[in-house]
């Protein structure tokens, strides 16, 4: 009897407190970025990696799995074990546009990916070649209507938010342009500077420095509110009420991940995203920090899928 009591006492002394073994994270965490290294999603992932690893002491690895507009990386996480140790930096493209754009996704975004927290919002910038006479959104609309079908616009790829943001603009204004897709925002901007492109709507993070240098002319931002980096620049919505095309990124886990784990991850993200140096780092690249609860992000992502699905169908864009 004494041996049993001694053993039980020893167990109580060395055993972790109740629930401690379930504390997240206990082992390596993998953050999947569904795009190539060097982009904004990669930057966000590595910022999260740095601070999560420093706090938890467990390895945090960033893996870039690009392809199919981000669907390869998103699909990888959708089919990963639902234990909270494989996470996705999802974007407006991967989690709102692609479900309507791609006809053969082998996973269901709403069912197979659990929203954890919104991370950042990025304004897109409406900018034109300086040879275009328009200096305001109303002037641009007038110019497009006077030259219907004669102008072109660029994007960073078919079905990207930069492509569909212009499609939304055309639908709202009753105008039509020729779409010229490129492989990246940098290639798009270079072609505008070279004189081959008239107009584009793309990431302010990448394009704003070119506007500041006078290489392109910025007319407006696509967010509901003016951007902190350019408070004198109007929103498109000031001319076209209801227009909004916000680029966003958020954290997702595989569908079926335990709610306690999801809540623990969301709380850790919120802690990191409120660190002063993280806020400064995000604002330095034009990002608006925007953490949410899992339920808030689930509702937001669902509404975004409906909104962008309508745009995809109205534009008649599909990728096999």
Description of the structure:
- The chain contains 12 helices and 11 strands.
- By secondary structure, the protein is of the alpha/beta class.
- The strands form 2 sheets. It has a 6-stranded mixed β-sheet with strand order 2-1-3-10-4-11, sandwiched between helices. A 5-stranded mixed β-sheet has the order 7-6-8-5-9.
- The chain is globular.
- About 6% of the residues have low confidence.
Keyphrases for this structure?
320 residues; alpha/beta; 5-stranded mixed β-sheet; 43% helix; 6-stranded mixed β-sheet
In short:
The protein is α/β, with parallel strands linked by helices and 320 residues long. It has helices at residues 2-14, 40-56, 71-78, 92-101, 109-112, 137-146, 161-173, 185-193, 204-212, 259-273, 276-284, 294-315; strands at residues 29-33, 60-64, 86-91, 113-122, 124-128, 152-155, 178-181, 199-203, 217-221, 247-254, 288-289.
Beta-strand content? 15-25%
What structural class do you assign from the helix and strand content? alpha/beta
Distance between the termini: 71 Å
Low-confidence stretches: 4-21
Largest sheet: 6 strands, mixed
Order of helices and strands: HEHEHEHHEEHEHEHEHEEHHEH
Radius of gyration: 23 Å
Read across the widest sheet, the strand sequence of neighbours is 2-1-3-10-4-11
Number of strands: 11
Q: What is the average per-residue confidence, as pLDDT, rounded to a whole number?
A: 90
**Based on CA inertia axes, which overall geometry fits?**
globular
- Helix content bin: 40-55%
Report the total helices.
Answer: 12
């Amino acid at each position: 009897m004494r041996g049993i009591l001694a053993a039980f006492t020893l167990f109580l002394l060395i055993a972790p407190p109740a629930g401690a073994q379930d504390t997240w994270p206990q082992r390596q965490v993998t953050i999947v970025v569904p795009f190539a290294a060097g982009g904004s999603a990669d930057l966000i992932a590595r910022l999260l990696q740095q601070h999560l690893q420093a706090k938890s002491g467990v390895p945090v690895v960033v893996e870039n799995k690009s392809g199919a507009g981000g669907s390869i990386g998103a699909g990888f996480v959708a089919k990963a074990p639902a234990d909270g140790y494989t996470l996705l930096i999802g974007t407006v493209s991967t989690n709102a546009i692609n479900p309507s754009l791609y006809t053969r996704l082998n996973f269901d975004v709403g069912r197979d990916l659990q929203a954890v927290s919104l991370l950042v919002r990025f304004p897109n910038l409406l900018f034109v070649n300086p040879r275009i006479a328009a200096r305001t959104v109303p002037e641009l609309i007038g110019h497009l209507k006077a030259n219907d079908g004669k102008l072109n616009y660029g994007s960073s790829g078919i079905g990207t938010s930069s492509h569909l943001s212009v499609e939304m603009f055309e639908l709202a204004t009753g105008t039509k342009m020729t779409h010229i897709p490129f492989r990246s925002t940098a290639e798009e901007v270079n072609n505008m500077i070279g004189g081959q492109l008239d107009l584009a709507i793309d990431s302010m993070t990448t394009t704003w420095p070119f506007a500041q240098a006078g290489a392109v002319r910025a007319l407006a931002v696509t967010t509901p509110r003016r951007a902190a980096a350019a408070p004198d620049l109007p929103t498109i919505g000031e001319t076209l009420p209801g227009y909004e095309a916000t680029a966003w990124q958020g954290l997702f886990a595989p569908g079926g991940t335990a709610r306690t784990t999801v809540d623990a991850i969301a709380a850790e993200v919120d802690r990191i995203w409120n660190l002063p140096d993280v806020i400064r780092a995000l604002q330095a690249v034009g990002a608006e920090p925007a953490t949410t609860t899992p339920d808030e992000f689930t509702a937001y992502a669902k509404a975004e899928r409906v909104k962008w699905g309508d745009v995809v169908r109205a534009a008649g864009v599909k990728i096999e």
